Request: fold
Amino acid sequence: MSRPAPEKRLFIKTYGCQMNVYDSERMADVLAPLGYGMTDTPEDADLVVLNTCHIREKATEKVYSELGQIRLMKLARQEAGAGMTIAVAGCVAQAEGEEIMRRQPAVDLVVGPQAYHQLPELIARTHRARGERLSADFAAEDKFDALPAERNPTGVTAFLTVQEGCDKFCTFCVVPYTRGAEWSRPAAAILAEAESLARQGVREVTLLGQNVNAYRDPDAGGGLAGLARALAKIPGLDRIRYTTSHPRDMDDELIAAHGELEALMPFLHLPVQSGSDRILKAMNRGHTVETYLRLIEKIRAARPDIAISSDYIVGFPGERDADFEATLSLVRQMGHASAFSFKYSRRPGTPASALPGQVPEEVMAERLARLQALLDEQQVAFNAAQVGATLPVLFERLGRHEGQLVGRSPYLQGVHAVADASLIGQIAPVRIEGASKNSLSGVMAGQPQPAPALEPL
Ligand code: 5AD
Ligand code: SF4
Reply:
């Protein structure tokens, strides 16, 4: 990937030993994808890093006196309408920590030698606190970054973006840099769009966001549960789904809504990424296997039949056989309806890309194959368990075979049935008679739920 000309200037002053010289180079490397190029003059730097040495007390005092000078440069830049971020790294940072920010409040962040890989996150957070956006040099459209493409309403089901961006900073992920801070659309605008979709015959909306359950109405402050409750009141909008969620944002209100709101479909995509606490910590996920499982228990208590899907990454740096076995064991406990799984992909500039213990390709491939075999088995079992049940199916379109329609069950399974084309856009009971890995088949077992009369636009 070719880098654009740096938009921001970085000045690093290195004190002390060869280790520090090496670390300064590493810091410059991890900051390059955020658009920082080196400068020799602190006066015109957007970011000044003092990579300090603690070997003698005199050296520490020198750092404070240098910081006094840099503070004046920061003030001069601020007067000229530019900004400056001041970071203290190295052994003084390690030894004195927050004390530095107390003694010299112009310092924005302090980062110890063990945490250089977190510099991109720390810098991004500092920018956000000031309301500035970083223009990052990560590939803009990453396969993991994009939301599902919004499709034109087929007349039956539609995507609706309600939230963008992410503040979670998982160490493998580019989204917090490419998409910026978490941002939500006002509920009033979402409701107006949903009403218009419903008037055109849409019966199901899938609310989209990189971190959709972090949704907060910027005007009224309500969360995703409140939004779902308001959407469920719209005549004709019988089904509400949302994706993708973070376990940390799965609040009690949203869990309760799954038990109370008939329109909220019993299918939840709640990525866990790994079954090893050691790896979850290195991923900066902010949850453990235990807290995730307790959350799932609560959700299942509210809605016992809920189908759970997840994302898993194999081969995160430092993942050992035992960590991977822990992931398989978590999957066995979960019993997924379906799940996505990926080989770890090293994204330059993300904190994990600088971690030691990158896992060889063939090890990742072998782990992924084993994980996917287990997930496939679970998907087959989940589908097979529906045989004999009668499920309400929202019919979306004609099937491949004559006279056949295709729709979806509440659990997001594709369902084929022989039915009249007039049932497209209707929810009707289907008795399930067959199941494969990817879909169900059945026969009509009753009349459709009445659809609302559509008002003219
Ligand atoms: N490598 C592998 N998988 C990734 N994902 C995001 N970034 C990476 C990466 N660098 C996966 C996560 C996430 C999903 C959308 O993509 O599992 O939940
Ligand atoms: Fe990326 Fe999702 Fe983690 Fe946000 S929560 S950093 S989007 S993986």
Summary: The chain has three domains: 8-138, 142-384, 390-444. Residues 315 and 364 are 5 Å apart (CA to CA).
